[in-house]
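YM 10:42: MOSC domain-containing protein sequence, as discussed on the call
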Amino acid sequence: MNERNGRVVSLIIGPEAKSALESVPSVTAVAGRGLAGDRYYFGRGSFNGPQFDPGVREVTLIAAEAIAECNRRLGTALSAADFRRNIVTEGIDFAALKGQRFRIGDVTLRWVRSAPPCRYLSRLLGEDMMTGLKGIGGIRAVIETGGTINEGDTVHVLP
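YM 10:58: structure's back
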């Protein structure tokens, strides 16, 4: 893989805010809604209130490398699901996605903004995630063209 391409190593969803999330082998991405079966798809996420921009909660991504670095920084062994991001990738530099459209499987997504760590995640996990994920919290994206995303799919940055 190069910095402009990577692959999906895990897909993580959960139906309710604050509930445990689970890894699934594939997921349906629906434009304007999110990932089928996920709390934000159902409008039940912790950040679904009217004060939050609905355009930034369809999909979140984090790099497996960031998860490993956070665990190193904190001396923890948190699982990918603990980070509460939907798509875990490896081999792609998220800086290459800034402002870009990208494809995973047959789904087209668009980078919206970074997903910095928040105190909410620190409270849920009882760890200092603000320190652990500083500068490496992942990104948020919207779904432009829906379809299916599978573990192992390649992440392609579009021209």
